Amino acid sequence: MVIPVFNQVHLTERCLDSLLAHRAEGSPALKARVDAQPDFLATRHLVIVDNHSTDSTPDVLARYKVLFERQGWKWTLLRNSENVGFGRAMNQGFNATQAPFVALLNNDTWLMPGWDQVLLRRIQELQADMIGPYYDETPFEKNSTLEKSKKFIQKNRNRYRPAWVSILMLFKRESFEKIGKFDERFFLTFEDTDLRERMDRAGMKYYQVADCFIWHHSKGTRGAKENLNVIPNTYEQEGLRLFQEKWGFDPRKREQKRLARLKRRWEKIKVSMQWF
Question: Dihedrals φ, ψ of 189, to 5°?
């Protein structure tokens, strides 16, 4: 698992707390399957890439190192002397592990119990190259969010759809290497859009599954006031320019089509009803 971090230490703490608390949980049936097939579950290796945080992140990570190693995790911390961008940080973390399946995770998230068991089972069942969870962005409250995740999964168990999710991506290692990882010219935006374009053109399969529910703080890192002076204010325009030069079209136009707008409205209705 790879998690890049940059300031916003409270988000990192919530993410790591959920990872510590929930990785070992899950249904008895899933746990029995994992125990019986050691290769089914990726190595318990967490790679944190600190993109030159200037808050208390280094001290907090030192504390979590002890907690994770106590649970049997292999802990690797990479520190950059400057913020090298999201895509490069993800690639650095990916290169630091040799697991056959690698989860790339944003730090502004909360993970449900048994999340890894579910995603690893589903990526194999669906014979996918990449798989992602359902995510919720309504206000977070630990107990109510946990209860919400349980109800959502009960209502939508085993459902899935071809959809791109960039908040938590579980990749087959060979698939991620085949498409060339993240293009490191993108600093913070459109790197995932570029990755998706390459997967589409390579005929790779990716899905979103309803069995795994996570919470996400939208734009948790780039929207923080303390990061505004560090993250270039032109990163989005530069990312769009790079994408257009590379692929010859503006990806935003796909989202402006009538069908795409109707789909977003329908998604809002489904969210309110907890439908997948």
Answer: -125, 155
